[in-house]
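Exam review. A common question shows you a sequence with its structure tokens and asks you to describe the fold in words. Practice with the pair below. Do the first one on your own.
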Amino acid sequence: MKKNILITGTSQGIGQAIKKELENNEFNCLTPTREELDISDPKSIEDFFSNLKVEIDGLVNNAGINILGNLDSVSNTDINSMVNTNLIAPLKLIQFVSKNMKLKRYGKIVNISSIWGVRSKEFRTLYSMTKFGINGITKSLAKELGEYNILINSIAPGYVNTEMTQKNVSLAEQNKIKETIPLRRFAEPEEIAKLVLFLVSKNNSYITGEIITIDGGFLA
């Protein structure tokens, strides 16, 4: 039987590539719309799982937001939005899916983090706070869930050639950034997706609690 993988944030970019890669490799992907699952709303998450008719074998926490700004510009609204979407929602989803995974003694969980959850830079205080946090969740739960054969890892992408990158970063700035990357290019979303595929597949039987950087050597 095909494994059922719940993926958040699949409308474009990395999430869309993950969905396509997993479906091409005989996984059944659950990709709820915002109306079906609003991850910023704990009640929506609870309702989604209450109405779910299939067992979840794997979870990919991909959805997230990035609000940039200096310290003085940080508002309570920004803090709440970032923490709720990037940190609390993934934790709640793991909490729900892990219940049945424990009973089956099987599960694969992948959290999409960021290089800014390994290292940081100016104006990314909130983003780094949540991405360092999701990495902490990954490590703690690898300890807690390991006895149930539930493997959980984080992937920390560097610069990726997505629609959002093309929209928010000028071509001149992109070229400047590429000069700081040993491979002299951005990752393609499909390259991130292939790593996700490995981590949720049967080929991964012993990797858990890891923060796997995929950045073309940027942090080296």
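Now try the second one, then compare your answer with the model answer below.
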Amino acid sequence: MQHNYLALMNKRHISQLLAGLLATGVMQIAASSEADEQVPVSGEITPRQYTFSWMFADSDSMKPRGGTTSGPEVQLDRRTSAAFTGLQAPKLDARERDRRAILAMAGDYRTSFDFIETVGFTQGYRPKPPYQSWGTERVYVVANEPEFVSLQHIIVMHFVDADGFKSDAMVVKHWRQDWRYEDEEMHAFQGRGAFALQVLDQDSREGAWTQTVYQVDDSPRYEAIGRWTHVPGVSYWQSDDRRRPLPRREFSVRDDYQALYGSHRITITPAGWTQEEDALKLVLDENNRPSTSQPYLAREAGLSRYDRLLDYDFSAGDVYWRDTGAFWSRVRYYWDALYKAESEFSFVKSVDGVPMFMALFGMAGEEFESEADMDEAIAALLAPYVTIS
């Protein structure tokens, strides 16, 4: 059945899938200029480098992997955003100030991603090459309620070849983040696609927000809990330590560990936001328990920056979200229902050589006679991928 959907995919869907692979593993590189200062920047690509690295390592072995394609010049907006100003308003109650901080992540961004191993724990350890990539994405507000906010990231990229030719827009529905205030329970990632219900006690959840991160196909990635801290000029959310699946940048090149274990911090800035990550690379046995001989291989630091953009054309992303939004809302409904009904479940990324994201992206372009038909088709497609414990 999944293969039939793939056969029906049109050129637009194939472009989106290609963009999805690029977005999660190889992002574009482009020049930029500052909006306030209007500083022109050459279209020539500046060689990537790490200021924070392994000082005595061979330079060739530490050459960053990641994006190598070129994109058009973009213009950064360095002005203080209205969302940041609203977040700083006086006399807000704590929950509302938190909610405004979450909503401040919506908007248009140039995104950059930096990851590097900082400490190795094995004998003869040699650091792996760091990772750098970036792209352009719009963050949409899917839900805006007093105690629940949902944000959908959609990447829209253009590529420029050696002759200066600019490609048509490449669009992919990227990751999603759901925020819930004083959540009573969460599904904790165990390893190898498995999730287990965790009930939160009153002390743990009072004043806290859970952030649930979903992958490009709306399958769950991980869920963490933390609290916002606000002082004049600064707002940040600090998560607890949690297991997380390997991202594409890792599972596509590594098979010597099975999970990341760590925390992350989101900081809202006047012109965007950042996410800092601190994670251990965790080796699990076949029962998803830490290895008794060598549970951790290395520690990794990560920094993702979301810098606001001016006048970038995200219209292709708007069209995609308009045309497929109803479908993806039913995919969200499927996972929400599974969360509520099951305390434990697991899923695999691929069945018979067909990745889950590719099968769903193909179905997103189809027409259905009713919502019930859509729900039935989604459930049938996902059945081979999902296992109820």
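Model answer, second protein: The CA atoms of residues 213 and 222 lie 5 Å apart. Residues 1-17, 19-45 have pLDDT under 50 and may be disordered. Full marks require stating both points clearly.
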